[in-house]
Amino acid sequence: MAPRLANPADIPSIMAVERVPGHDAYINLWTAEQHAAALAGPDHAYLIAEDAGGEPAGFAILSDRRDPHGNLCLKRIAMAAPGRGLGAPFLRAVTAWAFRHSPAHRLWLYVVATNERARHVYRAQGFAEEGTLREARLNADGTRTALVLMSLLRAEWDAQAPS
To answer: Which of 121, 126, 130, 128 lies closest to 160 in space, CA to CA?
Structure first.
């Protein structure tokens, strides 16, 4: 699954994926204006996963592309139909894109601590858990959730990436 770069016409489908029931427990929802501003700027790259019919099946947002220390953030990744086995291949493709199209030394992310399925997928692809940020995420209902910081170093990706 080779991701493609998003364009402004993809914003409605990105927002639809963000709003799949249940996603709000794990990802933040942005407005069309927030997505348009990020997509137009130099610090973000939006990648789109497409299904066999060419329809958007998910998206990822990479941020901090100009970080002087080489730390690239996987800000968001979400699939239109979770649980169908497309998320892991898309994550693999996004990770490959990140290291092949940037000088990043480290790809990092935050994942909601209770999202065991996502944590398992990240660990299976070589991401290491670096620590927990207690009560770091404010949920829509006013409660707070811990976030787990995870990362993958370029050398680790190089060691496992197909040649």
So the answer is: 126
User: Given this model, what pLDDT does residue 92 score?
Assistant: 96
Domain count, the chain: 1
State pLDDT tens for residues 6-48.
Answer: 999 999 999 999 999 888 888 889 999 999 999 999 999 999 9
Strand runs labelled E in the chain? 4-5, 45-50, 56-63, 71-79, 106-112, 128-138, 144-153
Range of the domain at 32: 4-160
Q: 104: part of which helix (H) or strand (E)? A: none
The rounded distance, in Å, linking the Cα atoms of 102 and 136 is 29
CATH of the domain at 147: 3.40.630.30
pTM of the model as a whole? 0.93
Q: How far apart are CA 161 and CA 68, in angstroms?
A: 25
Residue environment code for 127-142, b if the CB has 16+ CB neighbours within 10 A, otherwise e:
beeeeeeeeebeeeee
Torsion, CA 99, CA 127, CA 158, CA 1, rounded to 10 = -60
Beta bridge partners of 61: 46, 76
